[in-house]
Amino acid sequence: MKNLKIAVVGAGVVGITTAVELQKLFRNADIDIVADKFDVDTLSFVAAGIFRPGTSFTGPNEDITRKWINDSYHYWDNIKNSREASNAGVAEVSGYIFSSEYPQIVRNEFIEKLVPIYRTATEDELRLCPGKWKYGSYFTTILSQCSLYLPWCYSNFKNAGGKIIERNIDNLSSLGSEYDVVVNCTGLGAKYLCKDRKLVPIRGQVLKVEAPWVKTFFYGDYDTYVIPCFDSVTLGGCRQYDSYDCTVNKYDGLSIKERCESLVPSLRNAKVIAQRVGLRPHRDPVRVEKEILYNNGNKVRIVHNYGHGGYGITTAPGTSLYACELVREILMGNSKL
Ligand SMILES: Cc1cc2nc3c(=O)[nH]c(=O)nc-3n(C[C@H](O)[C@H](O)[C@H](O)COP(=O)(O)OP(=O)(O)OC[C@H]3O[C@@H](n4cnc5c(N)ncnc54)[C@H](O)[C@@H]3O)c2cc1C
User: Fold this and answer.
1) Domain annotation for the chain: domains and CATH numbers
2) How far apart are CA 136 and CA 98, in angstroms?
3) Among 32, 104, 108, 304, which residue is least crowded by beta carbons within 10 Å?
4) Is the distance from the beta carbon of residue 169 to the nearest atom of ligand 1 less than 6 Å?
5) Are 235 and 257 in contact (CB under 8 A)?
6) Cβ-Cβ contacts under 8 Å for 219 (sequence gap 6 or more)
7) Dihedral through CA 266, CA 48, CA 170, CA 153, nearest 10?
8) Against a cut of 0.85, is the pTM above it?
9) Does the beta carbon of 204 lie inside 6 Å of ligand 1?
10) Is the shortest distance between the CB of 12 and ligand 1 below 6 Å?
């Protein structure tokens, strides 16, 4: 009997996490990752990778949104507690979020009861960084650095028999003649593949600096953040709605540097090693659903998993596990389509 064939289109954090989970669920299936960009060329590579869902992160309803976030946390926490943690680029980090004006900015109802520590910052802690900080929280969470996580996953995927194919896809349904199911994890690429007007880029830029003495993360007002990663510290940031500019902007870089140095003055001694830009694939809600398309009259089964915006490292595992269930349903014909 012929093996089940599944294509996962996309090799960013969402695609690779989905592919690895599909391998666990369908042990005898032939699973291919098909993508036109890998590793350093993906958006996922740009992210600092901190587990902190924005309070605007939205799935199809409240229960599913929370399930995605909770499942994701447990996925990252399991890797963090395993002997593979450092190979996979997953570690615990702690730090502060401050605001000079808005108390709600320092709260996060998605994770306050999920992470091991989430508490109000003390008066002394509010004076840790220069600035007139009125509100603050201290919390512990997880950092997943994609420059380590993606290669670790690619290698696990290949060792489990998965195949990686470099190819641009201009029509998802064209894969229907080769595969039983196509899982669409193309991030912003889905804007064109699915003609999805709800998908909007939110441009971001970060600096990577050498500052091994920074062990704590700090968030300040106006998208300012300092996040210690495995091999560098990430300084951010900006959020530019509907911008398609993938080039490094000198003025954004200067503004980020100035804001981060005023938050953590010791960064003035840090060497800049890279500047990176990425377009966050923002969609409200994130799309994880089944669809049947037709190619020359033949049914093509699709499961979408895209639109994670600025929270794709945080939430990729939860949406991927959900997408795997949808693959199972669509294969069993247990579909309400
Ligand atoms: C500055 C910045 C900082 C961030 N920090 C964080 C953070 O700290 N925490 C967090 O959770 N998130 C963060 N994010 C968000 C995170 O980076 C994204 O949500 C996540 O990377 C999205 O992953 P993805 O797999 O959907 O997309 P991508 O990484 O873009 O992967 C998409 C894949 O699809 C493939 N593809 C697309 N179209 C086609 C096509 N037509 N044919 C073939 N292949 C195709 C691409 O080649 C690629 O392999 C940040 C983003 C930015 C910009």
Assistant:
1) 5-331 (3.40.50.720)
2) 4
3) 104
4) yes
5) yes
6) 95, 96, 97, 98, 225
7) 140
8) yes
9) yes
10) yes
